[in-house]
Design a protein that fits this description.
Strand order of the largest sheet: 1-2-3
CATH topology of the largest domain: Rossmann fold
CATH class of the largest domain: Alpha Beta
Number of helices: 14
Number of domains: 2
CATH architecture of the largest domain: 3-Layer(aba) Sandwich
Strand content: 5-15%
Radius of gyration: 22 Å
Structural class: mainly alpha
Length: 333
């Protein structure tokens, strides 16, 4: 039997996940878990790079996110789920890789200045924020991952990890780390109910396990074609936030019907939204029901993470012992 290649990915713990998270990353993870040896982790140390001054919610957000992962379909029988900060070997490899990573590599990271501008209310002139790509590289190569599922905008991060791994192997004349490949996925940018990119910070998100009445209310507030002033006016479905969701939650034949109904003014926006609510809730209902079951059995959830932590720690320990021997810091043993 051919051994499955290993992939790794993580998410910062921001609490309950919204539909943008589901369709932007989680759906892909769920599909990949049966094809690869998958390690998925809660990147709680990464959360501190921007939220170091307000860390109070990280622990609670971690468990909220794990519950959503399991509700959506991540299966511990097929993937390893763990929490980054419980595997201290990440930090040791981060330190050792930091010794060999040239400073200009970090300063030219395209998201470094972008995030400083976007998060201008926070002081991000810290060593931790500048160096987080090195921690990210440690997260990946400590498990000797062959691939990292990413969207196109994250390709520079994987390339930096590849460069760090190559530099380590070259400097110590030993192929300790495989060079991970990006597994490029087309990530849909799902609009929020106000038409902007879905984000908790914008207050425009629909959460994957949100109560049904709340989902209906948010759908009723969604933007439609602003040129369509009256019910009798023809509309352009591509200008409607609602139609973007129909493409995900309605059948192909219904999508065609809704588009034609909009363009011909045979269907009004209220009916369009009601259909979306019905279809969306039908698909999300199993996730919500699974979430409610898991909330009643948190001991099981903790057992899943304990087992995942143990497996991840075993893999990370083997790698860090090899790294210590390679760089000479284990000579006293």
């Amino acid at each position: 039997m051919t051994e499955r290649k290993r992939i790794l990915s993580g998410m910062r713990p921001t609490g309950r996940l919204h539909l943008g998270n589901l369709h932007g990353a989680l759906d892909n993870w769920i599909e990949l878990q049966r094809q690869y040896d998958c390690f998925f982790f809660v990147a709680d140390w990464h959360a501190l790079t921007t939220d170091y001054a307000t860390p109070g919610e990280i622990k609670n957000n971690t468990w909220e996110m794990i519950l959503d992962w399991l509700s959506a379909g991540l299966d511990p029988e097929y993937c390893t789920l763990f929490i980054q900060s419980d595997i201290k070997e990440h930090a040791e490899l981060y330190l050792l890789l930091g010794m060999i990573t040239p400073l200009p590599w970090l300063e030219r990271n395209p998201t470094y200045k972008d995030q400083q501008q976007q998060l201008d209310t926070k002081d991000l002139s810290t060593y931790g924020f500048l160096g987080y790509p090195v921690l990210q590289a440690a997260d990946i190569i400590i498990y000797k991952a062959h691939g990292v599922p990413v969207g196109r905008d994250q390709l520079p991060h994987v390339e930096l990890t590849r460069e760090i791994a190559r530099r380590f192997n070259f400097m110590y004349d030993r192929e300790v780390f495989p060079i991970p490949d990006p597994l490029l996925t087309e990530v849909p940018v799902l609009p929020g109910i106000d038409g902007r990119k879905m984000s908790k910070s914008y207050g425009n998100a629909i959460f994957i396990t949100e109560a049904e009445d709340s989902v209906r209310e948010k759908i009723s507030m969604m933007l439609t074609d602003f040129h369509r002033v009256r019910r009798s006016d023809p509309g352009d479905p591509e200008l409607s936030t609602v139609f973007a969701y129909h493409k995900l939650y309605s059948s192909p034949s219904e999508v065609v019907e809704i588009a034609e109904g909009c363009r011909s003014a045979q269907m009004g926006c209220v009916e369009c939204k009601q259909r979306l609510a019905k279809n969306m809730l039908e698909k999300l209902r199993p996730l919500r029901e699974k979430r409610l079951q898991l909330e009643q059995d948190m001991d099981l959830v903790r057992e899943i993470i304990t087992a995942g932590n143990a497996k991840a720690r075993g893999e990370a320990t083997r790698t860090i012992n090899e790294v210590r021997a390679t760089v000479g810091v284990s000579a006293w043993q």
